[in-house]
Design brief:
Blueprint (H helix, E strand, L loop, with lengths): L2 H9 L3 H25 L2 H7 L4 H5 L5 H16 L3 E4 L2 E4 L2 H5 L5 H26 L11 H7 L4 H11 L6 E6 L5 H9 L3 E7 L2 H13 L6 E5 L11 E7 L10 H10 L1 E12 L5 H12 L9 H10 L3 E7 L6 E7 L3 H11 L8 H12 L4
Parallel strand pairs: 3-4, 3-6, 4-5, 6-7
Antiparallel strand pairs: 1-2, 7-9, 8-9
Helix pairs in contact: 2-7, 7-8, 7-13, 9-10
Length: 372
């Protein structure tokens, strides 16, 4: 080993930054490779049984592609994500764990980090300099629905606390994703019925398929629609808004919340769950997505969200931090009871009582007095 070049690099101040950066590369390569395994359909294929190189190479169109495929597989082995044994290639380490069905949400989040989050970090500043922002078409709605389930265990605590466990309950869920939370609410309350709204047709179709597969089609319907344009009466007992308030610009959120409130019966409740300012690196990536998306906005601050709910006409705003030490928060609030609404309406109306002869005489005398 030649030590002189090493000493030269150290003396120049280049060695320690190079070592620190090199320590990051392997994690980046691993995230990218895990996403590539799933995107290529190899995660499930290698999970079932070992696959020989000859079997994989048979799909390559020419010798150059075979050579490239071998290099790609060798990198997977070097990263500790693949293993080459006597029977062929198998998954190893984290790849083997993420291939298990119960870890699909984490796998989907890994795919988002390697694709959407990577593009947000590397491309946002050049786009903003050109006056361009991102649109909803920069994300895969099916992938988003899968990755959002990474927070499911924590979010279920909010449902168990605030979804009524018995009695008739009509639920309106805005942005239902895969409809998994509608399913859980229906399990909590056998009398619950629901309408799930989705902005994107593809996500709505997938949610509807899930509802049929779960046997809930007689209690739940899924529609494509925007809560801002959906017509309807104040018939719902509960409205839910999970992980999507940042799909709306900050300046429009009070109006959105007020619009949701108009679909709720007097005394109905809203359960809103969202990541907030001050969270982990993953939450900061979500904040970046909202801030750079022309259809949305940055994540809310907790106090700001409470204020916006109050300004939208909701009362008794309660909050619960769902992940200790992180900014994943549930907000629960109620619309005004019917008697309160009636009193508010009466206070807002001008006094229309008919004038009596005595009051008219009093007004006449007042007007006839000379000004001092």
């Amino acid at each position: 080993m030649l030590l002189r070049p090493l000493f030269r690099v150290f003396a120049s101040g280049q060695l320690l930054p190079a070592l620190a950066a090199n320590a990051l590369y392997k994690s980046f390569y691993k995230v990218s490779y895990l996403a590539a395994l799933e995107n290529a359909g190899l995660m499930s294929r290698l999970r079932r049984a070992p696959v020989t190189f000859q079997s994989l190479a048979a799909e390559a169109p020419d010798p150059k592609a075979v050579e490239a495929l071998l290099a790609w597989l060798q990198m997977g082995c070097k990263l500790g994500l693949l293993h080459l044994g006597d029977e062929g290639y198998t998954l190893r380490g984290l790849a083997r764990k993420l291939a298990q069905s119960q870890n699909d949400a984490t796998l989907a989040l890994t795919q988002e980090v390697a694709s959407l989050h990577h593009r947000l970090i590397t491309e946002s500043v050049p786009r903003l300099r050109e006056g361009r922002t991102w649109g909803l078409d920069n994300q895969d709605p099916v992938l988003t629905a899968r990755s959002s389930r990474a927070l499911e265990a924590f979010q279920r605590e909010a449902l168990e606390r605030w979804i009524p466990k018995d009695g008739t309950c009509r639920l309106l869920e805005i942005g239902c994703g895969s409809a998994v939370y509608i399913r859980y609410a229906a399990m909590l309350n056998p009398q619950l019925t629901a309408l799930g709204l989705e902005l994107q047709d593809e996500a709505a179709c997938r949610a509807q398929d899930n509802i049929r597969a779960w046997g809930l089609h007689d209690r739940v319907r899924i529609e494509t629609g925007d809560i801002r344009t959906v017509q309807g009466e104040a018939v719902y007992d509960v409205a839910t808004l999970y992980n999507n308030i940042y799909y709306f610009p900050v300046a429009e959120r009070v109006a959105i919340l007020a619009c949701i409130g108009r679909h709720l019966r007097p005394g109905g409740s809203l359960l809103l769950v969202t990541c907030c300012q001050g969270g982990s690196a993953g939450i900061q990536a979500l904040n970046l997505w909202g801030a750079t998306n022309r259809h949305g906005g940055r994540l809310p601050d907790v106090a700001e969200m409470q204020s916006q709910l109050a300004r939208a006409g909701f009362e008794n705003v309660d909050t619960m931090r769902l992940i200790p030490g992180d900014a994943f928060v549930a907000f629960h609030a109620h619309t005004q009871p019917s008697d309160t609404r009636q009193r508010s309406d009466r206070r807002a109306r001008p006094n229309r009582r008919p004038a009596t002869s005595r009051s008219l005489l009093r007004q006449s005398r007042t007007r006839s007095r000379p000004r001092r």
